[in-house]
Amino acid sequence: MDYISTRGSAPALDFEGATLAGLASDGGLYVPREWPRFSEQEIASWAGLPYAELAAKVMAPFVEGSLTEERLLELTTQAYGRFAHDAVTPLVQLDSQQWLLELFHGPTLAFKDVALQFLGLLFEEFLGRSDRNLTIVGATSGDTGSAAIDAVAGRAKVDIFMLHPKGRVSDVQRRQMTTVLAPNVHNLALEHASFDDAQAIVKRMFNDKGMTDRFAIGAVNSINWARLMAQVVYYFAAGLQLGAPGRKVAFSVPTGNFGDVFAGYVAAQMGLPIERLIVATNVNDILHRALAEGDYSQGTVTPTAAPSMDIQVSSNFERLLFDLGGRDGGALAEQMAGFEATKAMKLTNAQREGASALFSSARADADEMASTIRWAYEHCGELIDPHTACGLFAARSAGIGAGIPVVTLATAHPAKFPEAVERATGQRPTLPTRVGDLFEREERYASIAGEYGAVAAFVAEHASPKV
């Protein structure tokens, strides 16, 4: 399996190369040259497998040539051995049609752990084969940062620089990053900046020859293909438990950067019978507007109680547009250049028609988010976080036919957003005991200007050169 750029002019790489590179040299994102596809018989044969074994089966075609099947299983077994629930991503039934897929049983209480625990091991595996060092630069709207830091803290040959918009992540999210005091971990709080500003700085650094000549810049954001690949697995896990491949399943996914829901699209291309992928946004609704009206135009970020979705540029949407546009890298490069220049884009007819075959979308405002948190508690006895509430609101209003289960991805533990949950339910969720001392730990981070020059200078001063 090799990987090509969505913008058509970067060299193809194998899985190892794409994992370490992150962003392609032409500014595009790596995708497999073709989607592997499993038969119904193959998928049915996986029913009942432990999560780590299922993960190795699903990911095997993507890593061919870089990892043996035996080594892949060793890595998945190690990655998912740290989860607090033996099922790793358990399903919880809400009513006759609605289900939650709990993705928050990893060490940092968010769905990002499912991919990043595995990605940290991949970095260690691949860097161990060479003499080079890796400088990871990432942006976070909350959960990616803590999950990535946990995955690579203390690992050899890796430095991580995580950018977050100062004051725009929850206290729990911030402390999960800033209380990790390993010498290879650097947290940067960007002043007067949004997540989109932080993400733009990261992308610019990948294309800054002065930086890439000195440092091997790598990515843990969902621009890194390996992260999306690992997220594909839990769609198969949920589908199999609910009757796939003999029964279709719909999924509702709270998303800002489009990575989590694009993993569902990949699962569908691989043969999982998905009835519909429901894209759930908060009032920062660029994805809802793009899917409903073909209007991918950047607006102003509005801070909400679901900060991980407070995004107006969804990096992974480019992967979908590439696939639906006939995989024409040159055409997509031109389309994305226009968006980057004008902050606006109209989807082509082919892109709109292709998306409508599988995707629908919904937007939840603050009242709808709060009422859904309240409904889940009063009717099902479940406390859910604001992001999951956006997904569940979309799921319950999607009009999916009777007999088709609808699975909402529960992306974060409710205790990461205790104020919002308490306002809606009167109940304040508590942190699990394994992270219960979070507010007693020492914090360490640097507050710097939310400008490219300041970030690049900090990274250059503290990172290890590539060799």
UniProtKB/TrEMBL annotation:
Family matches, as InterPro entries: Ser/Thr_deHydtase_PyrdxlP-BS, Thr_synth_N, Thr_synth_N_sf, Thr_synthase-like, Threonine_Synthase, TrpB-like_PALP, TrpB-like_PALP_sf
Pathway given in the UniProt record: Amino-acid biosynthesis; L-threonine biosynthesis; L-threonine from L-aspartate: step 5/5
Keyword Cell cycle part of the UniProt annotation: no
Cofactors: pyridoxal 5'-phosphate
Pfam families to which the protein is assigned, alphabetical: PALP, THR4_C, Thr_synth_N
Keywords, sorted A to Z: Amino-acid biosynthesis, Lyase, Pyridoxal phosphate, Threonine biosynthesis
UniProt xrefs under SUPFAM superfamilies: Tryptophan synthase beta subunit-like PLP-dependent enzymes
Catalytic activity, EC: 4.2.3.1
Catalytic activity entry: O-phospho-L-homoserine + H2O = L-threonine + phosphate
Alphabetical list of PROSITE patterns matching this protein: DEHYDRATASE_SER_THR
CDD domains: Thr-synth_2
Homology family: Belongs to the threonine synthase family.
PANTHER family with a match to the protein in the record: THREONINE SYNTHASE FAMILY MEMBER, THREONINE SYNTHASE-LIKE 2
Protein name (record): Threonine synthase
